[in-house]
Amino acid sequence: MSTSVDPTSSFKEKGIDFVGEIEYAGSVYVKIGIENFSALQGGYKDLHWALGLNLTSGLSEKSRFYAGLRAASIWRGGEGAYRINYGLESGFDYTLSKNIFMGLRATFDKRNDQEIFRWKPEAKFSGFIRIGYKWYYKKKFNDQIERLSNYSFKYNKQNYGNFHKLNCTQKTQHIQY
What we know:
Layout: E1 2-5, H1 7-13, E2 18-25, E3 28-36, E4 45-57, E5 63-76, E6 81-95, E7 100-111, E8 122-133, H2 139-148, E9 151-160, E10 163-170
Antiparallel strand pairs: 1-2, 1-8, 2-3, 3-4, 4-5, 5-6, 6-7, 7-8, 9-10
Protein backbone atom coordinates (compact mmCIF):
# COMPACT_ATOMS: atom_id res chain seq x y z
CA MET A 1 0.00 0.00 0.00
CA SER A 2 1.50 3.35 -0.96
CA THR A 3 0.86 7.02 -1.52
CA SER A 4 2.63 9.17 -4.11
CA VAL A 5 2.93 12.82 -5.03
CA ASP A 6 4.12 14.34 -8.32
CA PRO A 7 6.17 17.30 -6.99
CA THR A 8 6.79 18.95 -10.39
CA SER A 9 3.13 19.03 -11.46
CA SER A 10 2.00 19.93 -7.96
CA PHE A 11 4.34 22.96 -7.91
CA LYS A 12 3.55 24.00 -11.50
CA GLU A 13 -0.25 23.82 -11.08
CA LYS A 14 -0.26 25.07 -7.44
CA GLY A 15 -2.11 22.01 -6.10
CA ILE A 16 -1.33 18.47 -4.97
CA ASP A 17 -1.32 15.56 -7.44
CA PHE A 18 -2.12 12.74 -4.99
CA VAL A 19 -2.01 8.98 -5.73
CA GLY A 20 -3.03 6.03 -3.51
CA GLU A 21 -2.31 2.43 -4.56
CA ILE A 22 -2.45 -1.13 -3.35
CA GLU A 23 -0.39 -3.81 -5.05
CA TYR A 24 0.83 -7.38 -5.03
CA ALA A 25 4.56 -7.65 -5.71
CA GLY A 26 6.10 -11.06 -6.43
CA SER A 27 8.12 -11.84 -9.57
CA VAL A 28 5.36 -9.90 -11.32
CA TYR A 29 3.43 -7.03 -9.81
CA VAL A 30 -0.22 -6.04 -10.14
CA LYS A 31 -1.59 -2.82 -8.73
CA ILE A 32 -4.76 -0.79 -8.64
CA GLY A 33 -5.00 2.81 -7.52
CA ILE A 34 -6.66 6.20 -7.61
CA GLU A 35 -5.28 9.61 -8.51
CA ASN A 36 -6.78 13.02 -7.74
CA PHE A 37 -5.45 16.33 -9.03
CA SER A 38 -8.14 18.97 -8.56
CA ALA A 39 -5.84 21.87 -9.56
CA LEU A 40 -6.08 20.94 -13.27
CA GLN A 41 -8.76 22.52 -15.46
CA GLY A 42 -11.93 20.51 -14.97
CA GLY A 43 -10.26 18.51 -12.20
CA TYR A 44 -8.63 15.13 -12.71
CA LYS A 45 -9.64 11.83 -11.14
CA ASP A 46 -8.60 8.39 -12.28
CA LEU A 47 -8.90 4.74 -11.42
CA HIS A 48 -5.79 2.99 -12.74
CA TRP A 49 -4.14 -0.41 -12.86
CA ALA A 50 -0.70 -1.70 -13.79
CA LEU A 51 0.91 -5.05 -14.53
CA GLY A 52 4.61 -5.72 -14.99
CA LEU A 53 7.87 -7.36 -13.98
CA ASN A 54 9.40 -6.97 -10.55
CA LEU A 55 13.08 -7.46 -9.64
CA THR A 56 14.65 -7.27 -6.19
CA SER A 57 18.28 -7.15 -5.13
CA GLY A 58 20.54 -6.55 -2.18
CA LEU A 59 20.79 -8.08 1.24
CA SER A 60 17.26 -9.01 2.35
CA GLU A 61 15.99 -7.77 -1.04
CA LYS A 62 15.94 -4.12 0.09
CA SER A 63 16.01 -2.70 -3.46
CA ARG A 64 13.13 -3.21 -5.87
CA PHE A 65 12.99 -2.32 -9.57
CA TYR A 66 9.77 -2.65 -11.57
CA ALA A 67 8.45 -1.83 -15.03
CA GLY A 68 5.14 -2.52 -16.72
CA LEU A 69 2.04 -1.49 -18.61
CA ARG A 70 -0.67 0.70 -17.18
CA ALA A 71 -4.14 1.99 -18.06
CA ALA A 72 -6.61 4.35 -16.41
CA SER A 73 -10.20 5.55 -16.61
CA ILE A 74 -10.02 9.36 -16.35
CA TRP A 75 -12.86 11.63 -15.22
CA ARG A 76 -12.59 15.34 -16.03
CA GLY A 77 -14.82 18.31 -16.68
CA GLY A 78 -17.32 17.74 -13.88
CA GLU A 79 -20.02 16.41 -16.21
CA GLY A 80 -19.15 12.73 -16.13
CA ALA A 81 -16.85 13.01 -19.14
CA TYR A 82 -14.21 10.29 -19.11
CA ARG A 83 -11.58 8.69 -21.34
CA ILE A 84 -9.24 5.72 -21.19
CA ASN A 85 -5.52 6.52 -21.00
CA TYR A 86 -2.78 3.94 -21.41
CA GLY A 87 0.97 3.94 -21.02
CA LEU A 88 4.07 2.63 -19.28
CA GLU A 89 5.48 2.89 -15.79
CA SER A 90 8.71 2.05 -14.01
CA GLY A 91 10.14 2.66 -10.59
CA PHE A 92 12.59 1.97 -7.82
CA ASP A 93 11.75 1.31 -4.15
CA TYR A 94 14.08 0.97 -1.20
CA THR A 95 13.03 -0.70 2.05
CA LEU A 96 13.79 1.56 5.02
CA SER A 97 12.58 -0.78 7.78
CA LYS A 98 10.75 -4.10 7.98
CA ASN A 99 7.49 -2.61 6.67
CA ILE A 100 8.25 0.92 5.37
CA PHE A 101 9.61 1.73 1.91
CA MET A 102 10.29 4.84 -0.15
CA GLY A 103 10.72 5.15 -3.88
CA LEU A 104 10.61 6.98 -7.20
CA ARG A 105 8.08 6.19 -9.91
CA ALA A 106 7.82 7.41 -13.51
CA THR A 107 4.87 7.13 -15.89
CA PHE A 108 4.56 7.84 -19.60
CA ASP A 109 0.94 8.02 -20.77
CA LYS A 110 -1.04 8.74 -23.91
CA ARG A 111 -3.36 11.45 -22.50
CA ASN A 112 -6.67 10.93 -24.32
CA ASP A 113 -8.47 12.88 -21.59
CA GLN A 114 -7.33 16.08 -23.36
CA GLU A 115 -10.09 15.44 -25.94
CA ILE A 116 -12.71 16.31 -23.31
CA PHE A 117 -11.66 19.98 -23.67
CA ARG A 118 -11.17 19.67 -27.45
CA TRP A 119 -7.40 19.67 -27.03
CA LYS A 120 -5.11 17.41 -28.97
CA PRO A 121 -4.16 14.22 -27.01
CA GLU A 122 -0.52 14.22 -25.95
CA ALA A 123 2.07 11.87 -24.51
CA LYS A 124 2.97 12.99 -20.98
CA PHE A 125 5.78 12.02 -18.63
CA SER A 126 5.15 12.25 -14.86
CA GLY A 127 7.50 11.59 -11.95
CA PHE A 128 6.40 10.67 -8.43
CA ILE A 129 7.91 10.31 -4.98
CA ARG A 130 6.24 7.52 -3.06
CA ILE A 131 6.19 6.11 0.45
CA GLY A 132 4.44 2.97 1.52
CA TYR A 133 3.77 0.20 3.97
CA LYS A 134 4.20 -3.48 3.10
CA TRP A 135 3.05 -6.53 4.95
CA TYR A 136 4.07 -10.13 4.51
CA TYR A 137 1.11 -12.31 3.62
CA LYS A 138 3.29 -15.47 3.83
CA LYS A 139 4.22 -14.90 7.49
CA LYS A 140 1.91 -17.59 8.86
CA PHE A 141 3.19 -20.14 6.32
CA ASN A 142 6.83 -19.18 7.00
CA ASP A 143 6.27 -19.54 10.77
CA GLN A 144 4.96 -23.07 10.21
CA ILE A 145 8.00 -23.96 8.10
CA GLU A 146 10.31 -22.53 10.77
CA ARG A 147 8.60 -24.63 13.45
CA LEU A 148 8.98 -27.75 11.28
CA SER A 149 12.69 -27.04 10.85
CA ASN A 150 13.09 -27.67 14.59
CA TYR A 151 12.20 -31.32 14.00
CA SER A 152 14.14 -34.17 12.45
CA PHE A 153 12.27 -36.57 10.20
CA LYS A 154 13.47 -40.10 9.58
CA TYR A 155 11.92 -42.39 7.02
CA ASN A 156 11.47 -45.98 8.17
CA LYS A 157 11.55 -48.48 5.29
CA GLN A 158 9.25 -50.96 7.02
CA ASN A 159 6.05 -51.38 5.08
CA TYR A 160 2.81 -51.15 7.06
CA GLY A 161 0.26 -52.13 4.44
CA ASN A 162 0.17 -49.25 1.97
CA PHE A 163 1.78 -46.85 4.47
CA HIS A 164 5.36 -46.24 5.54
CA LYS A 165 6.31 -45.08 9.00
CA LEU A 166 7.75 -41.57 9.47
CA ASN A 167 9.57 -41.00 12.75
CA CYS A 168 9.64 -37.45 14.07
CA THR A 169 11.86 -36.21 16.90
CA GLN A 170 12.55 -32.69 18.13
CA LYS A 171 16.08 -31.39 17.57
CA THR A 172 18.05 -30.29 20.59
CA GLN A 173 20.41 -27.37 20.73
CA HIS A 174 23.93 -28.03 21.93
CA ILE A 175 25.72 -25.09 23.45
CA GLN A 176 29.50 -25.28 23.68
CA TYR A 177 31.44 -23.16 26.18
